[in-house]
Amino acid sequence: MAKITLDNLAHSYLPSPKGEDDFALKELNHDWADGEAYALLGASGCGKSTLLNIISGLLHPSQGRILFDDVDVTHASTADRNIAQVFQFPVVYDTMTVRDNLAFPLKNRGARPQYIADRVQQIAQMIGMEAELGKRARGLTADAKQKISLGRGMVREDVNALLFDEPLTVIDPHMKWELRTQLKSLHHEFGHTMIYVTHDQTEALTFADKVVVMYDGRVVQIGTPQELFERPEHTFVGYFIGSPGMNVIPAAIDGQMANIHGATVALPQAYDALDGKVEIGVRPEFVTLTEGEGLPVKVRRVEDVGRHKIVRADLFGSEINIVAGEDTSISPDMMRVTFDPAHVNVYVNDWRRAGKAA
Predict the structure, then answer these.
(1) Are 37 and 209 in contact, with CB atoms under 8 Å apart?
(2) Could you identify which of 8, 84, 177, 243 might form a hypothetical disulfide with 153, taking C-beta atoms 3.0 to 4.6 angstroms apart as the criterion?
(3) Under 8 Å CB-to-CB from 292, ≥6 apart: which residues?
(4) What is the pLDDT of residues 219-271, one digit of tens each?
(5) What is the pTM of this model?
(6) Domain 4-240 falls in which CATH fold?
(7) Cα distances (Å, whole numbers) of residue 326 to 319, 321, 329
(8) CA torsion, points 237, 338, 249, 219, in degrees to nearest 10?
(9) Is 166 left (phi over 0), alpha (psi -120 to 50) or beta?
């Protein structure tokens, strides 16, 4: 297990990058704690896999350093970094049995035969493949092969870090849930430093102690699921986390009030004059549809998703989403919305701006 430090790290796939836009991974400076489980979350092309491959040693960064427990490993091989990596698509030895595939990393390091047998049995149970241990991998399905790949990544107990690059893509939905649960159990039992790349917020939020949200080659926020939900540090985090995502509304800020087309919204803090693109962000869960006070809206449709209702409405020509309780009755007279002031965030040029106590 290891603390992982990203020191002035950046990467471009171009031989002579001219400016920031030429970098797939823009400058990063972060410490990731020893023994924690992190999820790298973001849309395709945001730099997640690039960063993971730099950490693993499969890719050398254009600038900066990678340190494991304050030791510079930037030029060290993958083997010397003592990590295990599981890729998006299965990487298995087709001519080997499932048992030999799982045992391979341990045999390669000279582990005792009895330990290998016990550990392989434990991992086979974890991935639900005890009955297939004697079968060759060649005849197995893609999701079975991916489970082997996942198991081989988890079989060693002495690694500095376990890295997962969208490992559940080819796994059926029910098995995804089971394997995520097993990964969490593995982490709690052995305390490995784990980094899990995904574009699926459910996977990220249910797996990780801390979620690392990436956008356009940057880490825009590292936080717990609760922090990402309640205080998105960037509008992308608000949009990407949650279903539906955060409502982002252009506004003018005056002290502890936001002005939206002449209507006012109370803020939890007071602000000095703000320059740039100014917006407020409020989660649909903290928006209430009413008949009386508030901002005028026009309800377009109501979607009943079982546990709650999602109301799609227009606010001064822009779409706004409202989450209402399952038992809430939506009437034609409900033509206004109010925001919970404690959960309204202010953004300047997409970044959250903290105010001061009023």
Answers:
(1) yes
(2) 84
(3) 336
(4) 999 999 899 999 999 999 999 999 899 999 999 999 999 999 999 999 999 99
(5) 0.85
(6) Rossmann fold (3.40.50)
(7) 21, 15, 9
(8) -10
(9) left
pLDDT score, position 1: 64
Distance between CA atoms of residues 127 and 152, nearest Å: 10
As given in the structure block, the two tokens for residue 137 are 């991998």
Tell me, what amino acid is at 91? V
Question: CATH topology for 247-352?
Answer: OB fold (Dihydrolipoamide Acetyltransferase, E2P) (2.40.50)
Do 4-240 and 247-352 show the same overall fold? no
Residue 62 is which amino acid? S
